[in-house]
Amino acid sequence: MTDHRAQVEEMIADYRRSSQRLSEVDEELASIEETAGDERGNVSVTVGSGGALRRVWLAEQVYRTHSPDELGRLIVRLSATATARIAERTDAVLATVLPSGSDPAALRADSAASASSVTGVSVPNGSGVADNGPRNSAAEPEQDESLEPRSWLRDVGAAERDR
Prior knowledge:
Blueprint: H1 2-31, E1 33-37, E2 43-48, E3 53-58, H2 62-65, H3 68-95, H4 104-119, H5 158-162
Antiparallel strand pairs: 1-2, 2-3
């Protein structure tokens, strides 16, 4: 009887370690940011996980050196560059928790396709990790630990539903 108890306790301990690691990965994914700038230093774009545009910085003279169409295309190009870097960093983080030989990019693509079909929202450049910000603010109490399954890749529409 004690053998079973020890096995169950070890399984619960393994589950808690895994759950903790997945929470850490979730936080790491949510905090990823990349900035891309033009060669003149007149425009920079910061993108968060999932391709969420977080900041656009424009130098005052940018309006004299670029037409509105040029500026728009430049911002889109810089966003795509930063989003591609986000995808690479996301893959590197996911690789730390996926089984050996797994393809993190395929997981992102599958996750983006699933989220898009459920929420009607597509994520730029196939990045399937949504930027929903931190899960708990300092003012929110910690939730009780549960043995219920949970997703460590938040769905794309969660931020909008939570607002």
